[in-house]
Design a protein that fits this description.
It contains twelve helices and 16 strands. By secondary structure, the chain is α/β, with parallel strands linked by helices. It has a single domain, classed as Alkaline Phosphatase, subunit A (3-Layer(aba) Sandwich), CATH 3.40.720.10. An eight-stranded mixed beta sheet has the order 6-5-7-1-8-11-4-12, with helices on both faces. A two-stranded antiparallel sheet has the order 2-3. Strands 9-10 form a two-stranded antiparallel ribbon. Strand 13 and strand 14 form a beta hairpin. Helix 6 runs antiparallel to helix 7. The longest helix is centred in the C-terminal third of the chain and has 25 residues. The chain starts with 9 loop residues before the first helix and ends in a 10-residue tail after the last strand.
């Protein structure tokens, strides 16, 4: 067994009831994230992104890109419906999204070459095509995901995390439980997004005990933090770069407790019943409501992660979509409308995507299989022009017919909207320069 020190997780750092934030030592000698050497966007904190990943692969033909003129085994079981924008039609299941179509930009020509769920997820979150098209675990040399990139590039936000993932990590139980693309990768685990775990629609939802023990005041906690910094001990053995990262985690954990905004953002009891009902009393709907509250509290990047490939429909698509599409449709439409009503949509980019689409032809099991050749992604807000369609698929929904868009292009656009030039240079663990994105910023402003 190795006797090397082990870095505490963020959850361990936040067991504030026992004040373990003042106890552990960050000592992973393999990773030294160097945020202080990276450029920061001057106004990045003013802009936000809610990134909804419907992991498993939703069907573009049945939801966003209907093909009513195609044969029955392609067009599927639903008819197209009109939206608030003349000439733009969605699939019948997207009836609520159709009512906010004037605020949506539908990209119907997304494309890449990875048909494996994990590989497709990795390219969706990083833009990197340097990977096998197969299952694998996350590792330290991965390209970092957007939340980790923002954590590294931007100055910290007092009192709230810069990036949050909810209601779980992207995960496939089994040999590939740690899905790559969502963590810090070569920037280091210290830049992983902050995980807020749990079902916000459940009674007694309380994902984090971010409260002080009885008798522990904010002033007293501050004095303990100052005392801890003055003590000798294992922290003195850390190299300067790692010590700075450890201090950052200590400071962040203290701020979360002392400030209170983050804790209040997670308290859905503050929301009127009418608002909670509008989002839908489901895990998906209430998670998006939490996402909106986190944006209001100052969190810059919130990722909604579907769990265990729930959008993977190789069989029984009709019955499965009757279960999972209505909560998504309702929650997504409510989020867009709510952000607009609160004056937040213009500076909050909402992304709704899968890691790929589904095959044009319905299979023998009444489902559709993986299809990365062409699929749809929907954007709203963040200065993106609404009521438009970018690109097109062919008459079968099988290949791009116009203006193909890669995941790298989408991510370049996300970073641009967050005030970070896609050409920004990152440094890996060996101090090698790596460009943040080689994608092109889409002309959707």
């Amino acid at each position: 067994m190795s006797d090397a020190p082990v870095a505490p997780s963020r959850r361990e750092l936040l067991r504030v009831g026992a004040l373990s934030i003042l106890g552990g030592v960050l000592a992973d000698g393999r990773v030294a994230a160097r945020a202080e050497a990276l450029p920061a966007a001057a106004d990045g904190w003013r802009r936000h992104c809610i990134f909804i990943l419907l992991q498993g692969g939703p069907s573009h033909i049945d939801l966003w890109d209907p093909k009513p003129e195609a044969v029955a085994e392609i067009r599927g079981p639903w008819r197209p419906i009109e939206t608030t924008v003349p000439g733009i039609r969605f699939g019948e299941p997207m009836e609520r999204a159709a009512t906010v179509a004037e605020r949506l930009c539908v990209i119907r020509s997304m494309t890449h070459r990875f048909s494996n769920h994990i590989a497709g997820t990795y390219v969706t979150l990083t833009g990197s095509t340097q990977q096998p098209d197969q299952d694998r675990e996350a590792h330290a040399d991965d390209f970092p995901g957007p939340g980790a990139v923002l954590n590294a590039l931007q100055a910290s936000i007092p009192g709230v995390p810069r990036s949050v993932s909810l209601p779980n990590w992207l995960s496939i139980p089994g040999p590939s439980n740690r899905m790559p693309g969502q963590y810090g990768g070569f920037l280091g685990a210290v830049h992983d997004p902050f995980l807020v775990e749990g079902d916000p629609s459940a009674a007694g939802y309380r994902p984090l005990a971010l409260a002080l023990d009885a008798g522990m005041t904010v002033d007293r906690l501050g004095r303990r933090l100052a005392l801890h910094r003055s003590l000798d001990g294992a922290a003195r053995l850390l190299e300067a770069g790692l010590r700075r990262q450890y201090d950052r985690l200590q400071e962040s954990a203290y701020d979360l407790v002392a400030d209170g905004r983050f804790r209040r953002a997670l308290d859905l009891s503050e929301e009127p019943d009418a608002v909670r009902d509008a989002y839908g009393r489901t895990k998906f709907g209430q998670s998006l409501l939490v996402a909106r509250r986190l944006v209001e509290a100052g969190v810059q990047f919130v990722a909604y992660n579907a769990f265990n490939q729930e959008w993977d429909t190789h069989g029984g698509l009709l019955g499965r979509y009757r279960q999972i599409v209505p909560p998504m449709d309702r929650g997504f439409a409510a989020l867009v409308a709510d952000l607009a009503a609160r004056g937040l949509l213009e500076r909050t980019l909402v992304v709704n995507t899968g890691e790929f689409g589904r095959t044009p032809t319905i299979n023998k099991d009444a489902g559709r299989d993986h299809w990365p050749n062409v699929y749809s992604t929907v954007l709203a807000g963040g200065g993106v022009r609404g009521g438009v369609v970018l690109g097109a698929s062919d008459s079968k929904g099988a290949e791009p017919a116009d203006a193909p868009v890669s995941p790298a292009d989408l991510l370049a656009t996300v970073y641009d909207r967050l005030g970070i030039p896609p050409a920004t240079e990152l440094r890996d663990r060996l101090d090698r320069p790596i460009q943040l994105s080689d994608g092109r910023v889409l002309p959707i402003g």
